[in-house]
Write a structure and sequence with these properties.
Elements lengths: L10 H39 L3 H17 L9 E7 L18 E6 L3 E2 L5 E5 L6 H5 L8 E10 L2 E9 L11 H8 L15 H7 L7 E5 L5 H15 L1 H7 L1 E5 L2 H7 L2 H4 L6 E4 H4 L5 E3 L3 H7 L3 H13 L7 E5 L2 E5 L1 H13 L4 H24 L5 H9 L1 H10 L5 H10 L1 H8 L5 H7 L13 E2 H14 L7 E4 L7 H9 L5 E6 L13 H7 L6 E5 L1 E2 L4 H8 L13 E2 L5 E6 L3 H12 L6 E5 L4 H10 L4 E2 L10 E5 L8 E7 L1 H6 L4 H9 L2 E9 L5 H4 L1
Parallel strand pairs: 2-4, 7-15, 7-16, 8-9, 8-14, 10-13, 14-15, 17-18, 19-24, 20-22, 20-23, 21-22, 23-24
Antiparallel strand pairs: 1-2, 1-5, 3-4, 5-6, 11-12
Helix pairs in contact: 1-2, 5-6, 6-7, 12-18, 12-20, 13-14, 17-18, 17-20, 20-21, 21-22, 24-25
The structure holds adenosine-5'-triphosphate.
């Protein structure tokens, strides 16, 4: 039992306390059950009473969400902390405003739980009053006399730890409950950290919805955790608005997304969209790969201007008047008004597709005016529609403002050197233009086997033609790898929203990886966002951090180094004669400990290691299989970003470095995945930067 800083030394008192806390946990669980049953009952009656089908669907969705939100996971505690304010014994009063002097006792948990009379039994960690659980200190107790943290084991309350802030007692990172949480063996997907959010993390989690922030944090400093908890916090505070507009989480790959997928639902947030940036721009299937240099050029921000100009060039000048026959009448719009229509519309700077329709509407209204003058009555809607679709009007539009599809525009640029030259003149060199031009152009956009970089260009084109719907808040993880054009794709979806940008410049592995957050922020349309460092590491043990930090000087980035909270952990770097044999032996040894085992190797070595482990009778999983029962995962180096394993076996660092231009950055990522122990096995000499 952890009882640091508790007032009483009498074990009987402590047992009584624990018994009473357990009773509160039991009654809170029962109360939550009642809340869920009530929601379920409403859900089924809602089905029958709702009026029209739209209302029924909305109500159904809302109720289904509510039922899901109220799910009780018996393996996670309903509350993890308790605050005593002002020394009175009113339990869990919820009626305190932010400026009122708070009194009473509050249990802090993952969601609100109220008793049958509506009195709170557990306060949501995101409620204003819970803030003090994370921020109060001996220097600034914020009215808190005692902060209590609970220790749990699979949902059962096992211990607690008190800090008498009113007496200047404060544990900070010496809390044994925090240490146990950080050092616990990892299995399965990522978990929430609500019980142990640290003050500097909490400041980011609770930043205003209006504030865009950028977090530069060394490996394992909790960036992902902060981003996810911020999403949950903002949803709590701005529920209606954000449910309407949506919250988006962008991550580096699907393995990562499945690793983090359970965190928000565990916090009761079930309606957040999670996507890779590739999936975000997937208007066309990606069926081809191209060389890095061409892809890098397509990700260059100059391509945005090339595309903008390519569209602008489509807009022509009228060369003849429009003549429309309408029964016994003939209407004529002369060149001068047509010029004016085009000029006015151009000046409005609308998306291209919207502009085309605006021109059509203006032409029709000129026709309408003529018709009204002659017939002395307003034409019908049917007449207006007929005019809008009439051949002369459509032909005019097709000449001066032709319909363009995003795929068509990109196809033309990459297939036709003259079209590219016209749009790229002065922006791209001739050599660059030649590099972009297809050697064997596909006949049509439809027949094209697009690359991932083409998809980004097509998304940019689409954004110029029609404005996409935006989200209310966007969290972008591992953001150091975003290209300028990918940033723009995200910016289009967060134009009126704030963003949380998370990353580590030292972990940039893409050819276009960021070297300065201000550039990334500018491409994202948030140049004024503040860049905040996180430097306390919760994952990687100090000895492993020290090894990985040897690489930092060679990575040419300016980032504050991490310091680890973890003094435990093991590091073993050794030369072996047979990598496969040594890996199998290392995995077998690792399996004698608790927790997950990650074998990380250069991508082309993975299959063979997997096979060798299978031959040795060791079941292995792939990185995206988070629900697996297998404790061992074999992961290619390029997929391991953002993931973590208790025991990591890194196989042949030199091969990982040699596999790609930013191989040293990749190795830095790979070496910082270990929670407890890291074994580095090598036959070739270690990369010079690591050998130290
Ligand atoms: N306040 C905390 N309390 C307990 N555990 C924490 C805390 N903050 C972070 N962690 C744990 O530390 C580990 C690393 O966190 P996270 O993955 O969010 O770090 P990161 O900065 O995103 O890492 P990377 O740079 O490798 O992507 C996770 O297991 C997370 O749960």
């Amino acid at each position: 039992m952890t009882l640091a800083a508790h007032t009483s030394n009498d074990p009987a008192d402590l047992d009584d306390e624990l018994t009473s806390e357990r009773a509160h946990l039991e009654s809170s669980r029962a109360a939550l059950r009642r809340m869920r049953e009530r929601a379920e009952a409403l859900f089924s009656t809602g089905d029958k009473v709702a009026g029209d089908s739209y209302t029924a669907e909305q109500l159904g969705r809302h109720m289904a969400r509510r039922v899901k939100e109220l799910a009780d996971d018996p393996t996670t505690p309903l509350f993890f902390g308790r605050l005593n304010f002002g020394g009175t014994d009113r339990r869990n009063s919820d009626d305190a405003g932010p400026d009122d002097e708070v009194v009473g006792v509050y249990h802090v948990g993952r969601r609100h739980v109220t008793d049958e009379l509506g009195e709170p039994m557990v306060i949501d960690w995101r409620a204003p009053v819970s803030r003090s659980f994370y921020r109060a200190s001996a220097r600034d107790p914020q009215g808190v006399t005692v902060r209590r943290r609970f220790g749990f084991s699979t949902g059962a309350l096992t211990s607690f730890e008190d800090e008498h802030l009113d007496r200047g007692e404060e544990l900070g990172t010496a809390s044994r409950i925090l240490t146990a949480e950080i050092e616990r063996p990892r299995v399965g997907p990522m978990r929430d950290i609500v019980a142990t959010i640290q003050p500097e993390q909490d400041e980011l989690v609770r930043a205003d919805l209006a504030d865009s922030i950028c977090v530069q944090g060394a490996p394992g400093t909790g960036k992902t955790a902060v981003g996810l908890h911020r999403a949950a916090y903002l949803l709590y505070l701005h529920r209606e608005r954000l449910n309407r507009s949506g919250v988006l989480i962008v991550g580096p790959n699907r393995a990562f997304l499945s690793y983090i997928a359970a965190v928000l639902p565990a916090l009761g947030e079930v309606e957040v969209q999670q996507s890779t940036v590739e999936d975000l721009v997937a208007r066309v299937p990606v069926r081809a790969v191209e060389d890095v240099a061409t892809a890098t050029l397509k990700h260059d921000v100059r391509m945005a201007e090339v595309l903008r100009r390519a569209l602008e060039i489509q807009i022509g000048e009228p060369t003849e008047p429009i003549m429309v026959s309408d029964g016994s009448f003939r209407w004529r719009i002369g060149l001068e008004p047509l010029h004016r229509v085009l000029e006015e519309t151009r000046r409005e700077g609308l998306p291209y597709g919207v502009g085309r329709e605006r021109v059509r509407a203006r032409v029709v209204s000129l026709l309408q005016r003529q018709s009204e003058a002659r017939r002395a009555e307003s034409p019908s809607d049917a007449w207006l529609r007929r005019m809008a679709k009439s051949r002369p009007v459509t032909t005019f539009l097709d000449t001066v403002w032709p319909a363009v599809t995003p795929e068509g525009l990109v196809h033309t640029l990459l297939a036709d050197p003259a079209a590219l030259a016209a749009a790229a003149d002065g922006l791209l060199t001739e050599a660059e233009q030649a590099q972009l031009t297809w050697a064997k152009p596909p006949r049509t956009a439809k027949a094209t086997r697009w690359t991932a970089a083409d998809a980004v260009l097509i998304d940019e084109a689409a954004g110029l033609i029609e404005r996409p719907a935006g989200f209310g808040h966007v969290v972008i993880d591992e953001a150091q790898d975003l290209s300028p054009m990918q940033c723009r794709a995200i910016a289009r979806r967060s134009e009126h929203a704030s963003i949380t940008l998370l990353g580590d410049l030292a972990q940039g592995t893409a050819p276009w990886a960021a070297t300065d957050w201000h550039e990334t922020l500018a491409h994202l349309g948030k140049p004024n966002a503040v860049v905040v460092p996180l430097t306390v590491g919760f994952r990687v043990p100090a000895a492993v951090v020290a090894l990985a930090n040897r690489l930092l000087p060679a990575l040419a980035v300016n980032v504050p180094p991490a310091e680890s909270l973890r003094r435990d952990g093991g590091l073993d770097v050794r030369t072996v004669t047979d990598l496969t044999e040594a890996t199998v032996a290392e995995v077998r040894a690792a399996l004698t400990h608790d927790g997950s085992v990650g074998v990380i190797a250069a991508d082309d070595a993975v299959e063979q290691l997997r096979a060798a482990l299978a031959d040795a009778g060791v079941e292995t999983a792939t990185a995206d299989d988070v629900s697996t029962a297998a404790r061992v995962t074999v992961v290619p180096a390029t997929l391991v970003k953002g993931l973590e394993y208790d025991h990591v076996v890194v196989v042949e660092p030199a091969a990982i470095v040699a596999a790609e231009p930013r191989g040293l950055h990749r190795l830095y990522v790979v070496l910082t995945r270990a929670v407890s122990r890291l074994a580095v096995l090598h036959r070739d000499p270690l990369p010079a930067a690591l050998a130290g």
